[in-house]
Structures are given as structure tokens and as C-alpha cells.
Amino acid sequence: MPSAPAPADGEPTSFREKAKSWAEKHETTVRVVKAVGATVGAAVAIMVVKQVMTRNVTEYAEDDQATEYAEDDQATEDDQATEDDRDAKDKRRPPVRHSVTEHTRTLADGRVIPIPPYERGGSSEDEGEDPGEVAA
């Protein structure tokens, strides 16, 4: 392979200049190599994703089967638990009902508006009841 010609001052050309010159001469080859590399990279990525997905599905099926056996063993224990205990676990605690004092709010357009006091929190089941009834 012949080397690139030396510049007029006699200094050898840099590697970067040689590579740029070679790439300009072999533009079609560079494009083909890029296309082949991208295709091979995409194929490898697809294979890896497919293998990971297959492994996850297999592990999920094994875990699901193990869970079925464990649930069968726990069925007798669950029969002993009352329905009230299960309902208590499923319910969230409602937010605490509290009063918000009067204040002002500045809107995005610069206006300042007054906000009257209001009640906040509690559950929708609490509406229409005063705080004394809720605590009882």
C-alpha cells in the first residue's frame, strides 16, 4: 500500500490526514462496511433480547408453578383467617382531615387572588359527618 505523499515542506503526514485521504478515495467501501456493521449489530441485539425474553418467560412459568404449590399449602392457613382481617389489610388509611387557613395565591399571569379557609383530607365516607362522629 503506497503511503500518502508528503507535504511540500517535507514533514510526514499525520495519521488523521492519511485516514481522511483513504476514506475519500474509498467512499463506497466505507459505506458498505458501515451498513454491514449496523446490520450485524442489530441482529446480535435482537438475538440477545430474544434470549433474555425467553429466559424471563421460563423463569416466570417456574415461579408461577412454585407459587401454586405454596398457595395450596397456605390454603388451610387462610381458612383460619377471618374476612375482617383480610379487609383490614386491603384498606388504606385515609388522609387526616384538617383545616386550611385563609391565604393568597399568585397566578401565572401575575394576579393575586384570595383563597378562603376550607377543609382538606379525610375520606369520601366522612362527608356529612362532623369530626366528633368520625372519632367515635
Structural notes for this entry:
With 136 residues, the protein is mainly alpha-helical. The protein is built from 4 helices and 4 strands; from the N terminus they run αααββββα. The protein has helices spanning 15-25, 27-80, 83-90, 131-135, and strands at 98-100, 103-106, 112-115, 118-120. It has a two-stranded antiparallel sheet with strand order 1-4. Strands 2-3 form a two-stranded antiparallel sheet. The model has no long low-confidence stretch (mean pLDDT 77).
Classification by helices and strands: mainly alpha
| SSE order | HHHEEEEH
Indicate the mean pLDDT: 77
Identify the strand order in the major beta sheet: 1-4
Our count of helices gives 4
Q: What percent of the residues sit in helical stretches (DSSP H or I)?
A: 55-70%
Distance between the termini: 95 Å
Strand content: 5-15%
Give the gist of this structure:
57% of the residues lie in helices and 10% in strands. The chain is mainly alpha-helical and 136 residues long. A two-stranded antiparallel sheet has the order 1-4.
